Amino acid sequence: MKADYQVPNASYRSASEFPTAPWTDLLRTAIKDLAELLDFVELSYSELDEVSIVDPTFPLLVPRGFAARMRKRDPHDPLLRQVLPLARERDAVSGFVSDPLAEFERSQSGVIRKYAGRALLVTTAACPIHCRYCFRRHFPYADQSASRASWADAIAALERARDVSEVILSGGDPLTLANGRLKTLIDKLERLDHLRTLRIHTRFPIVLPERIDAELLSSLASSRLRTVVVVHCNHAQEIDATVERGLAALHANGVVLLNQSVLLRGVNDDAAALRALSERLLDARVLPYYLHALDPVAGSAHFDVPEREALALVEEIRSTLPGYLVPRLVRELPGGISKTMLT
Ligand code: SF4
After folding, report:
1. Are 283 and 244 in contact (CB under 8 A)?
2. 178: exposed, middle or buried (Cβ count in 10 Å: 0-12, 13-18, 19+)
3. Which of 151, 174, 297, 307 to pair with 315, CA 20 to 30 A apart?
């Protein structure tokens, strides 16, 4: 695949060259109004093929940099489809529920133990973008965030969990925490000698890459913990030169980069799109890790791709890509002891 962008300098170690504004300002000025988003992409309500809505329970939130990667005047743009609230979300669909992975009950002090050896910390409710298919869109963050009591309960729970060697920061998006708070948390985790790996699940490097600033890079690079950042990118169009520079900075600072995506109707449900995504991720030093079957969360049924079709898609890309560029198709089941590998 021919690259139509500048490959960043491999010796690039600091993000200080590229942020155009502090990430906090970019987050604060993200688009929150549907009319403004449509105006930004030069569409009118009448040009949408479906009825859009304003949803106060899960409001629109789109960083301007992400919106700038959407094609103008295209109601089917794959980035727009991920954030566009549609009236169909209000349809009750059998099997689509508020807590599809039964996490509400298993979360204690913001710590969720799903799989052996690993623990997940729900660090914050906040995200840099609101993805309409999000499986935690109904999660009771106010009750469950680990940041209550300055992480004390969560750290105490992890201290007792001697079998845990990897802690996963999740959310919301853990990189919405200010650098100081994040460093405090990482310092506390480093003091737990049974922990070896820090994993961060984040959509920031894709949707608001200016978040990868010098202070964040320094915290990650200086940690004794092995650091893995799992980004969330669903379509090759999401990766532009700014995203690539941020990912290169993480990579240059010793961070292992993986991607997880969700198979979404109308976004990436064809072999060409999935192939292009894997190739583009490799350009940006990220290996495809998981392709998730949609979690059946209420409001997301219109994104669903039947399992048989998903399997056929993965087989199709396997025939033209090296194995390391073929993500594992997985489904999470409530109460499962590991993800269910579908391929
Ligand atoms: S960034 Fe992640 S947690 Fe936040 S809405 Fe999107 S998918 Fe959900």
Report:
1. yes
2. exposed
3. 297
> Which pLDDT does position 211 carry in this prediction?
97
Which atom of ligand 1 lies closest to the CA of 136? Answer: 8
Q: How far apart are CA 268 and CA 274, in angstroms?
A: 6
Residue type, position 340, single letter: T
CA distance 61 to 242: 20
Token output for 98? 């508020």
Ligand 1, residues 129, 138, 207, 259: which to mutate, most atoms within 8 A of Cβ? 129
- Please, are residues 206 and 231 in contact by the beta-carbon 8 Å criterion? yes
Q: 18: buried, middle or exposed (CB in 10 Å: 19+, 13-18, 0-12)?
A: middle
User: Does ligand 1 have an atom closer than 6 angstroms to the CB of 134?
Assistant: yes
pLDDT score recorded for residue 342: 77
Question: What is the third-level CATH fold of 1-262?
Answer: TIM Barrel (3.20.20)
- Range 203-212 burial, b when 16+ CB lie within 10 A, else e: bbbbbbbbbb
Pairing mode of beta strands 107-108, 111-112: antiparallel
Q: Residue 14 has what pLDDT?
A: 44
> Which residue stretches of the chain have pLDDT < 50?
1-16
217 φ/ψ sector (left φ>0, alpha ψ -120 to 50, else beta): alpha
**Helix (H), strand (E) at residue 242:** helix 241-252
| Domain residue limits, the chain | 1-262
pLDDT of residue 19: 56
